[in-house]
Design goal:
Blueprint lengths: L3 E6 L6 H14 L4 E5 L5 H11 L9 H25 L3 E5 L2 H11 L4 H12 L6 E6 L2 H9 L12 H17 L4 E5 L4 H15 L5
Length: 210
Amino acid sequence: MNGKLIVFEGVEGCGKTTQMQLCSKWLEGLSVSVLLTREPGGTELGKHLRQLLLEKSEDKPVGELTELLLYAADRAQHIEQELKPNLAAGKYILCDRYTDSTVAYQGYGRGLSMSLINQLNHIATGGLESDVTIWLDVDVEVGLSRKRGQATLDRIEQETIAFHRRVQQGYTELAATYPSRIFRVDGSLSQEVVHKNVQEVLISSIIERR
């Protein structure tokens, strides 16, 4: 595959959307063909799954195992329909969340079996890993305060602080385990400084190696 899969990860309100948009404009300025996508919701099927996963339902809550399987289904469709074809076409894909989110949220956050999660991730991806993962690291309460100031919170954003702290711990441990793939960027700094730091990561890990 000629393209590159660049994933943006982090807790709620870490700034992924803003940084992906800035990164896309920067890469296009370097004459790189870019695709912006996300999980869940990167395909037509994924949009429906995203609605099921993120809408709050008091009387009929989504079960934890059901949630995990829906994310895996979204990912499998996303990879076959979007990621593989566009990577083969040489595009740089900027993806909002990927496999590390499942480990952090469903593994650390929900406490589901890591072996099951790893197995499902492998089945869904066929072994496709990110070339680079940008972890935008912000304090959980800072991130959630940003979200509260923007819009109505979805089902995941409404989880307890304890849940989100477990998710953050998941990202911390993932970054320590995969230092050659996951790069921590301080997301509490200004948008401009964060963008500059993201650029530096991508220049050293991808651009200079083209």
